[in-house]
């Protein structure tokens, strides 16, 4: 991430926050921080175009925490006055962590609200009193409707990764949540892309917003080296194993389009002797959290994820991202490769592209306004993974080895039929949404 010549000191931040920033090792503001923080301090609404990895979280967290601390007398604290809506539980956790780092310095309390876990513990935390709430829209609306959260004092509303929230079908929840807010509040919308839907949402929820844009949606992260390998669909798994071994990659985030595809690939990598695990919205929250923690600790090499699950993952210095399937929505390519090359690190984003996906590749290249270099692997065609099929096919082999009455020859084990991957069903929000 490119930082600016502006210093944090010049942004008018309080000493407690400056020391929090220093302890995180941030030396100067990123462009979104340098541009957005003054606008937020001025008090106006903000429409910010910034993708993940640009430092956008601190861009809204720092001024909000400071203004809450300065404008609210102690006796009025512990009522939610800032609400950050995010698309996924993972992003909620990441934003809440960052928010807490600053909030604690100014004796403010932040909490996280998301679905997929029991509501009771959240009710109790809200009851004990919080200043800042980071939430996924579905569960937050549940609380609002049950009356377990009082949104009438909200001064700041942040819509983080608003484009993703719309992709996940949260539009109705967002609008309903907005009805619970007081008429006068400051609204900040962050989005990596500006679709017509985002414009409509901004028109409804923001009042004459200032626009700040640091990375146009068509730009991919600067520090990411991108490459395309053209490969038959049936040989993608083999090529992935080959690339991981040949290059000695130890921390790879691999994207598949479907949950089924993620599980299948994980199983196949394990057969190839490459430690891997999958993360998708069918997995329970505790398993997702644990899997991510283990990946961060380097306990396995490959994390296979779907777009929905990966949204909001903050994995420091993630060196490699592989698009095992190209995304159906070209913007997702930008989100995916935003997972590498973060915070000034170099990253590599590889796409394995089959003949059938060339049309998707063309749409991506149009969006990012560049042609992604094609690479070939001279040694790959001869390469054959010594795949252990024994365990998988042992049962089949046993069955086939039993001579049938009419059979004379002993049956030879056959490869298990590979079920073709189907694209993700167009589920709309019901199938994909996991945070309510
Ligand atoms: P975000 O876009 O908020 O997800 O931030 C991406 C990453 O950048 C996170 O790992 C932050 O800790 C890091 N970061 C945020 N602000 C800065 C800064 N000013 N200098 C260096 N790293 C930063």
Features:
436 residues, alpha/beta, Rossmann fold, 2 domains, seven-stranded parallel sheet, disordered C terminus, binds adenosine monophosphate
Question: Could you explain how this protein is built, in words?
Answer:
The chain is of the alpha/beta class. The protein has helices at 15-24, 31-42, 56-71, 89-103, 120-128, 137-146, 162-167, 171-179, 196-205, 236-247, 259-271, 285-296, 307-310, 330-337, 358-368, 390-401, 428-432; strands at 46-49, 82-85, 110-113, 132-135, 156-159, 186-191, 210-213, 224-230, 252-255, 276-279, 302-305, 320-323, 347-353, 374-375. Helix 2 (31-42) runs parallel beside helix 3 and helix 14 packs across helix 15. The structure holds adenosine monophosphate. Adenosine monophosphate (AMP) binds next to helix 3.
Number of helices, where a helix is a run of at least 4 consecutive DSSP H or I residues: 17
Number of strands: 14
Strand order of the largest sheet: 3-4-2-5-6-1-7
Number of domains: 2
């Amino acid at each position: 991430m490119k930082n600016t010549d502006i210093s944090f000191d010049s942004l008018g931040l309080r000493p407690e926050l400056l020391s929090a920033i220093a302890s995180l090792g941030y030396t100067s503001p990123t462009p979104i921080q340098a541009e957005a923080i003054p606008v937020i301090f001025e008090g106006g609404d903000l429409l910010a175009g910034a993708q993940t990895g640009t430092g956008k979280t601190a861009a809204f967290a720092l001024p909000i925490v400071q203004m809450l601390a300065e404008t609210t007398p102690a006796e009025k604290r512990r009522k939610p006055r800032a609400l950050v809506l995010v698309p996924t539980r993972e992003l909620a956790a990441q934003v809440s962590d960052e928010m807490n780092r600053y909030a604690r310095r100014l004796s403010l309390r932040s909490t996280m609200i998301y679905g997929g876990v029991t509501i009771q513990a959240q009710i109790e935390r809200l009851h004990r009193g919080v200043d800042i709430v980071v939430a996924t829209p579905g569960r937050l609306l549940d609380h609002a409707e049950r009356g377990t959260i009082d949104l009438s004092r909200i001064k700041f509303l942040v819509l983080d990764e608003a484009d993703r929230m719309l992709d996940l079908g949260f539009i109705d929840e967002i609008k309903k949540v907005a009805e619970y807010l007081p008429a006068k509040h400051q609204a900040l919308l962050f989005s990596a892309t500006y679709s017509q839907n985002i414009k409509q949402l901004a028109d409804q929820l923001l009042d004459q917003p200032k626009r700040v844009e640091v990375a146009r949606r068509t730009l991919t992260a600067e520090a990411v080296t991108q490459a395309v390998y053209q490969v038959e669909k049936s040989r993608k798994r083999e090529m992935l194993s080959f690339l991981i071994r040949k290059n000695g990659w130890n921390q790879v985030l691999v994207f598949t389009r479907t949950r089924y595809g993620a599980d299948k690939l994980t199983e196949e990598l394990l057969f190839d002797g490459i430690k891997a695990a999958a993360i998708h919205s069918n997995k329970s929250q505790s398993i997702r959290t644990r899997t991510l923690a283990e990946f961060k600790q380097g306990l396995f090499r490959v994390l296979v994820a779907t777009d929905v699950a990966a949204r909001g993952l903050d994995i420091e210095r993630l060196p490699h991202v592989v698009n095992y399937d190209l995304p159906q929505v070209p913007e997702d390519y930008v989100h995916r490769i935003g997972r590498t090359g973060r915070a000034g690190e170099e990253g590599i984003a590889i796409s394995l592209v089959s003949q059938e996906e060339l049309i998707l590749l063309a749409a991506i290249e149009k969006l990012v306004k560049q042609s992604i270099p094609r690479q070939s692997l001279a040694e790959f065609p001869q390469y054959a993974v010594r795949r252990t099929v024994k365990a998988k096919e042992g049962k089949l082999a046993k069955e086939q080895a039993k001579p049938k009455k009419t059979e004379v020859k002993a049956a030879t084990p056959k490869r298990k039929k590979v079920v073709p991957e189907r694209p993700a069903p167009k589920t709309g929000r019901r199938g994909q949404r996991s945070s309510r």
